[in-house]
Amino acid sequence: MSTNGGCVQRFLVNDLDILYPETLLEINGQTKKRGGVPILFPWAGALENYPQHGFARDMEWKVIDQESNEILLGLKDNEQTFKIFPYHFRNGLKIELNEKRMFLSVSCF
């Protein structure tokens, strides 16, 4: 498991990967990231001179707690984020799995 980037990259049901794999694609001369289930923070969409969909999907998240079928990850402000987003924040991402379902809950405070 990697916590590099707030993005669920893989989910198997009956040994079938049901998510489009995270990949980089060339679209109209630009490299775009596609696939998985990314966490878009602090904005979704494009803002001029800022990373599309924010920065959370590209940062290292910290494992806060982990059990057999769930994990809690955290991301908080730091020197790198203040260069783009000059506000304090703490995010939590809880992912719960069972045989056929994945539940994601995101908290921002």
Describe the structure.
The protein has one domain. A four-stranded antiparallel sheet has the order 7-8-9-10, with no helix packed on it. Strands 1-6 form a two-stranded antiparallel ribbon. The longest helix has 4 residues, at 79-82. The protein is mainly beta and 109 residues long. The protein has one helix at 79-82, and strands at residues 7-8, 12-13, 16-17, 23-27, 30-34, 37-38, 62-66, 70-76, 90-97, 102-108. It has one helix and ten strands; from the N terminus they run ββββββββαββ. It is flat.
What's the layout of helices and strands?
Blueprint: E1 7-8, E2 12-13, E3 16-17, E4 23-27, E5 30-34, E6 37-38, E7 62-66, E8 70-76, H1 79-82, E9 90-97, E10 102-108
Antiparallel strand pairs: 1-6, 2-3, 4-5, 7-8, 8-9, 9-10
